[in-house]
Structures are given as C-alpha cells and as structure tokens.
Amino acid sequence: MNWIVFTIFAWIAMAFETGFRDALALGSSSISPSLAMILVAYVALWAPIRHALPAAIVVGLLLDFGDLVRTPGAEPVVVLGRHAIGCLLASYTVVTLRGMMFRRNVVTIVVLAGVTMALTQIVAIAMLKFRSLYDVIIVDDAAAQLGSQLGSAIYTAALAFIVGPLLNRMKWLFGFTGSARSSFRMP
Amino acid sequence: MRNSRQSPSPATLLGVTLLTLLVLALAPTRFTRWVTSFRGPVEVAIAPGKVVLEKASRVLRPPMVAPEVQRDERELREQFDDLLRLHLQAARENRELREVIRSLQAGTPYPASVGARRLSTQRQGINLSTGLVQVRGGSRDGVVPGTIAVAASSQQLIGQVVATDLATSSIRLITDPRMQPNLIGAIVTPPIDEDSLREPDRSAVQVTVELRATDDGVLVSEPIGSVGKPEGVLVPGAVVLLRDPTWPDPAQFFTIGLVETVEELPRNPGFIRLTVRPTGPELGRVGSMILHIPGGDPEGSG
Fold it and tell me: pTM, whole model, 2 decimals?
C-alpha cells in the first residue's frame, strides 16, 4: 500500500470529519456520515493485513484526537485509544470477511462501511462508559449516543454508495495489487 | 542459530500496540492528561482542510435559527438597549446631582427652574401644512409654550410645545427645519454597548456639537474639527443628547438620536459632519408621549 496516498486520504477524511460532517447531519440530530470509516473499510477490503491494521489504528488515533471528553472541571481531555481499538477490531473483521465477498461490488463496501462504523462506535462508547465508572470523565447518556452512532453507521453506508465506487477506481493510486477476484467461490 | 537482534514480528508489534492503546484508553485521566497536549499539533495539521470544508459547510447549510428565537433575540436586544440607556441616563443624573450638592455646599443658590411637571399624553394628529403635531392636554392642564415632549417608552426627545389651546397643544418636532432657533446645541457621547457597563466613565467623554434639522427627518451637524477629539465618540452609533441653554432645563440631556453617518468634508480637510437620526419610530408618528412642563412640581403627573 502506498502510505503517502493513504496519508493524504486520511487527512482529507479527518478534515471532512471535523469541518463538514455537521453539514450532512440529519436535521438537528447528530446522525451524520463518516468518511474516515469508509476509508478504513476500503483499506481493510483491499490492503494486505499488515497494512490494513496499522492504517486502521492511525485513523482511529486521529478520531480520538478529534473527539474530546468532558470532565467536571470543564477541562476537555483526549481519551486516546478507544477509536483506535474500535477501528482495529472493525478492520480485522473486514479482513476476515473479505474472503467471502465480491470486493468489487459496490454493495460490499456499502455494507462493510456500515459494519466498520457500527463496530468502532460500539467499542469506543463501551470503553468510554466503562472508564467513566471509575474516572472523572463525564459520559452523557451512552444509550442515546449508541443509538445516534448506529444511525450514523447506516448513513455512512449510504454515503459509501457514492464514495465506494470512487475509491474503487483509485485502487492503482493506493497501490493495491491484490486480485480483484474474491477467494469466495460459488459452488 | 537465531539472531537475537532480529526485529520483532508484526504480530508482536501489533500486540504491544494494542496493549498500549488499551492502557491509554482505560487509565484514569490523572495518568493520561498529558495525551491531550498532543491534540494541538494534530489540529494544526488538519486545520487547512478543515477551514475550507467548514466554510463550505456554512455556505451549504447556514445555521438554522427559529423565527421565534430571532424575534426573542431582537426583543431582548431592544430591551437591553433601553435599559442600558436608562442606566446611563441615571448615572449621568447621579453625577449631576453630586455636582449640584457640591455647588450647594459651596454656597451657590439652587436654580429654581429645574423642576418640571410631567403629563402623559397621546398624539392626536399632525398638521401637514405647519408640520406641528397635535397632542392632548392644553392650557387648562398647565401646558405652556416651551414644554418639551419626550417619547413615553424611551428617552427620545420629540420636540417642543409652540402653541396651546384649552385642550390641545402643538409640538414642533426637533427634526423640523422650522424649529426656532434652528441650531440645537448637543453633546455626543460614546455608543451604548456592553463596554459602557464595564467602563461607566466612558460615557462621561463627550463632544459638543450644533445640529440643524433637515427635510429628511434627520439632523446634521455643523462642521466639526476632528483633530484633538476623543477617540470612539464621533462614530456611527454614538448617542447625541440635548445640551442647549436656549431650551428649558427639563429638556437637557434627553436623547436627540444616534449618529448615523460620519462624513469627512473634502473642502474642509480635518473637519467632519455628523448625521443624527432620532431613535425609534418617525417622530411624527410617536403615539404616547410625556410632556415635561417647566417650573412645575416634579412629582406631579397627568
């Protein structure tokens, strides 16, 4: 995988997360799509596992830095690791599943982007809630957050209908040399 | 023989990374607070793209404000401005009263003409040919020529009674060019804003001007030399108050209006001209007024 190209795409995805995500939010809710999650799913779908997992950690760490958590002193803190672990788990799931999927099919990236987002957020919110049991951080209604993030997962899947095919056309840019043929075989 | 300096396997690296992330994610804040300090460089790295997309986001989806919220905000702003104006008026009166007390202590006789009786009244109509506004309350109510009219809901000076009959009075508006004398002495004080509360002494800074009414419902000043004038006073939004010895004492310090424009005079370098517009609705349309009748009992009211 070409890490320079990945870095550029990760940078664009993070700029989108912090600067543009609100514009696509549904009404006044916090349900909005995540370009970063589509990137993680895409890399996990095509890159060798030795690249896919570190790439997921990098994107997860960037998400951690962009998501501040409140404390009673109104001092926001970064909880590093929760999105990174979530992305790692989601990426590993995609790597495991990709052998059974038609990778070129747009539906594949759509489904996997949704799964990636959902898994990442479940892990991230669960870890945050667990930490709040013994730490000073304040976690507002975790169930509501989870509901909102699962809604965002569906929205992310919908966005992947547009972004997925574009990314598939840029495989050569990323240097993905894996066969387009899936190891999945129809009987 | 296995090389002891062989680099660790990817699986080992991944395990160590995962363990580190777990520790960072679950360790209490007092041990991981230092991580937050790395957010700045990450933000800086992302900022160029973020700023561009934020601008696009605002263009594509401007922040939504409900109409009732907008109305509430406007009403609150108007109430705030009115209260601030009253506060500054009270502060100014307080200052003047202290001056009066000092004068009395120094043996200066108290000016008997300061007192004024107030009479609430309503606009009845306007005589388009003379430009005079007719209001209820006439000579039988004690209204005399020279009585001043002020808007009931603000400190806006409306004009001066020029004629009375038994039950009504006629008011010449301050924006009427036929007002005699046609030059009105005034002082300009800094604009009223939140800073006025924080710096009450700021409102004591003032510049004396002379205003002349025009046909456009505004007043323009005589040319003012801008050199040596205090900063932040002769600016749009500045408050203009009546300060004219030819007007009765009760009229002093009432609001003439706000500075609308400050225009440099090309033919007179270093000189400027102010345009002052009365606050609130057009003066000829103000419905409720208070008449301040000179020489009366200040406690009396209509």
Answer: 0.53
Q: To probe the interface with B, which of A49, A65, A77, A83 has the most B CB atoms within 10 Å? A: A65
The whole-angstrom separation of Cα A27 and Cα A20 is: 15
Contact B240, B211 (CB under 8 A): yes
ipTM: 0.85
In the predicted model, is pLDDT for residue A186 greater than 80? no
| Beta-carbon separation of A127 and B26 below 8 A | yes
Contacts of A85 in chain B (CB under 8 A): 18, 21-22, 25
Alpha-carbon distance of B19 to A88, in angstroms, equals: 12
Q: Find out whether B150 and B164 touch, Cβ atoms under 8 Å.
A: no
Tens of pLDDT, residue by residue over A67-92, are: 888 887 667 888 899 999 999 999 99
Q: Which of B10, B36, B56 sits opposite A20 (nearest CB)?
A: B56
CB B247 within 8 A of CB B261: no
List Cα–Cα distances, A46 to A51, A124, A185, B287, in angstroms: 10, 24, 18, 77
From the list B24, B49, B21, the residue with the least C-alpha distance to B34 is B24
Terminal alpha carbon distance of chain A: 32
Contact A77 B36 (CB under 8 A): yes
Cβ neighbour number for residue A96 with a 10 Å cutoff: 11
Residue B181: cis peptide before it, omega within 30 degrees of 0 = yes
Q: Do B53 and A50 touch (CB under 8 A)?
A: no
Closest CA to A23 of B58, B64, B65, B47: B58
Residue segments in chain B with a per-residue pLDDT below the cut of 70:
1-6, 63-71, 85, 108-115, 193-204, 296-302
Q: How, if at all, do strands A77-78 and B271-277 pair? A: unpaired
Between CA A159 and CA A73 the distance in angstroms is 38
- Tokens for B287, please give them: 């419905």
Measured CA to CA, the distance from residue A90 to residue A14 in angstroms comes to 18
Which of the residues B26, B58, B65 would you substitute to probe the A interface, choosing the one with the greatest number of A C-beta atoms within 10 Å? B26
How would you classify residue B77: left for phi > 0, otherwise alpha for psi between -120 and 50, otherwise beta? alpha
